[in-house]
Amino acid sequence: MGYIKEKFKVKADELNAEVKDLVKNHGDMKIEDVTLAQVYQGMRGITGLVTETSLLDANEGIRFRGYSIPELREKMPKVKGGAEPLPEGLFYLMLIGELPEEADVQHLSNQWARRSHVPNHVFAAIDALPVSAHPMTMFTVGVMALQTESTFAKAYAEGMNKKDYWSYMYDDSMDLIARLPRIAAYIYRRKYKNNVHIQPNGLLDWAGNFAHMLGYEDEGFKELMRLYMTIHADHEGGNVSAHTTHLVGSALSDAYLSFAAGMNGLAGPLHGLANQEVIKWILEMREELGGGSPTKQQIEDYVRKTLSEGKVVPGYGHAVLRKTDPRFTAQMEFAKKHLADDELVKIVWLVYETVPPILESLGKVKNPWPNVDAHSGALLVHYGLVEYEFYTVLFGVSRALGVLASLCWDRALGFSLERPKSVTTEWMKQFVAGKVEAE
Ligand code: CMX
């Protein structure tokens, strides 16, 4: 067993004892009342999950084990000469609950390089899809094809003791994280670069090697990937990709099955796919205006047109956040430092000045501020990654860090099969009339 796995086991045993104690002594404590509107409207605000890796504050944004994004950018180990956090460090933090040392990050980089082999049948499964298929479809197909490698599924089929679930889930999660950049890069090069592939460089860090396999050797792009892979990794447990991975995992589906399910949720336009929609929306606006940079008035007109067509403004709004997303701010700071004169970036900033007052004036949008997806595309375009249908795959590779660390915790804490109660509208009508009661 590697030392990080051993450390995780110690932490998990400690927390397991505390959770058992909490449930035994306070299990009947009511957390909150649930309203009828919450049940119909996406369960907003209902506390129904435990996720150890991160916690979201509506105003401050995400904290990973208590650390905000600016704190991570300051405290996390970096590559020599680099300024952005290494995602390996964030994974360690989410899994173990402590800031990593340089050696921990190096150990994870090495482990992931060693575990990164992808069998040929995975590439063959992706190749079976037409090149026109969406990259997210290819991505989940690739992950599903890789499920043949699950040690959890094999051990379960042979008859596994529940005490060992966490151990196999840990190994599967480590293997899957190690292999995802290879699968994602394969999809990118197949679809957009004439099927010419680039072999991994085992001496690079996880995100640096991903950039290399995509075909981007610019150090600025590698730094962007380190930041990108860090800030997209986790957003507590209730978002669609994290919740789906957790839900499917609760049936003891292995890491591959659970993660693929989560990725199908990430591929929805109200969630991760919004990152492609943002850049598409900006490019379409530019095209409609005949090219060049739009004025604030032209952006305002385009936003109103979007709304009048019954569409959402992509990259704005959030189910929980009520202020500008610190993940947006981190990308804005990166842009100010590295590419402040970029035309598309300047448009993103002008959109940021224009959209919130308009959404606010509608009176119904709970959060008029930008989310993580409002900025990322412009950064990628700057470095030449213009194929925006691929953007959600990048989000997905990063999201693996959070949802798979959580899945390890789910199995280590022995979480139950998830199965909330549902009712019919007929039941609701009878409930309102006082004829039936909630269980
Ligand atoms: N543009 C236009 N209308 C918006 C809006 C936006 N950006 N954000 C919210 N609204 C609308 C909703 O569609 C809803 O309208 P109806 O009452 O007519 O159905 C109303 O405002 C209230 O919605 P809300 O409570 O403020 O927001 P929700 O929690 O229901 O939804 C979200 C949150 C993210 C789906 C929504 O803000 C949205 O559609 N944003 C655009 C898509 C996007 O950027 N998604 C990415 C989110 C981050 C991520 O997961 O990656």
From TrEMBL:
Q: In which pathway does it act?
A: Carbohydrate metabolism; tricarboxylic acid cycle; isocitrate from oxaloacetate: step 1/2
The top EC class is: transferase
Coiled coil feature spans: 5-32
What's in the keyword line of the UniProt record?
Acyltransferase, Coiled coil, Transferase
Q: Which GO terms describe its molecular function?
A: citrate synthase activity
Q: Which GO terms describe its biological process?
A: carbohydrate metabolic process; citrate metabolic process; tricarboxylic acid cycle
Q: What Gene3D superfamilies does UniProt report for this protein, alphabetically?
A: Citrate Synthase, domain 1, Cytochrome P450-Terp, domain 2
What EC number(s) has UniProt assigned to this enzyme?
2.3.3.16
Q: Which family does it belong to?
A: Belongs to the citrate synthase family.
Q: What is the protein's given name?
A: citrate synthase (unknown stereospecificity)
Q: What is the lineage of its organism?
A: Bacteria, Pseudomonadati, Bacteroidota, Chitinophagia, Chitinophagales
